[in-house]
Amino acid sequence: MIKQVLILAATLVLLSGCNEKSDRPGDNTTSSFTAPVPGETVSPPAKPKAFPAVSDPYGADQAAANGDIVNVHGKMYNLDKWKLFLENLDKGVPNQVRITQYTIEGDPIFYELVFDGAEAITYTYDNSRDGFGSDAGRPSTVCRGD
Fold first, then answer.
1. Neighbouring-strand partners of residue 109
2. Which domain holds residue 119?
3. pLDDT digits (tens, 9 = 90+) for 47-91
4. Contacts with 110 (C-beta within 8 Å, 6 or more apart), sequence order
5. Is residue 78 within 8 Å of residue 66, measured between CB atoms?
6. Which neighbouring-strand residues pair with 71?
7. Rounded to an integer, what distance in angstroms lies between the CA atom of residue 32 and that of residue 92?
């Protein structure tokens, strides 16, 4: 279990590096368009399902029931969803997870990861419900596997 928590923490640290803006054109866009091969039928990418709504208050039990991966001061819930996300990432299967971490005061902070099944993970950070947070809105960035 400690190994899984460390992998989760390392992933969050790596994804936070995706917040850096690039000077290369196209790096900071969310489009993953690839030109089709002649004669190929192209269907639009599947729209990811919306994450379950967040109620107020949003306790750890509700977050776990909604399918979030929950971290309450080191006590983890729904780690199986994290393992599935990593497996789908390796297989190229679109998937998404929301990680809800609680502050010492009990306020939730959200990390949402949406994998498009090809090469990009959209990472969204939301600390709007943290009473002592900076409420930076919901900044989102895209990490590409170039």
1. 101
2. 59-146
3. 668 899 999 899 999 999 999 999 999 999 999 999 999 999 999
4. 54, 98, 99, 100, 124, 125, 126, 127, 129
5. no
6. 76, 101
7. 14
Q: Residue 28 contacts by C-beta under 8 Å, 6 or more apart in sequence?
A: 21, 22, 141, 142
Q: Give domain status of residue 15, yes or no.
A: no
pLDDT level of residue 136 (50, 70, 90 thresholds): confident
Question: pTM of the entire structure?
Answer: 0.71
The answer as to whether 106 is a domain residue is yes
Task: Give dist(CA 97, CA 121) in Å, integer.
Answer: 11
Is 37 contained in some domain? no
Single-letter residue type at 84:
L
What's the DSSP call for residue 6? H
124: closest CA among 23, 56, 50? 50
Residue 50, burial from CB neighbour count under 10 angstroms (0-12, 13-18, 19+): exposed
**How many residues are listed for the chain in this entry?**
146
Q: What is the pLDDT of residue 137?
A: 81
The count of domains in the chain is 1
Nearest-angstrom CA–CA distance, 90 and 69: 19
30 found inside a domain: no
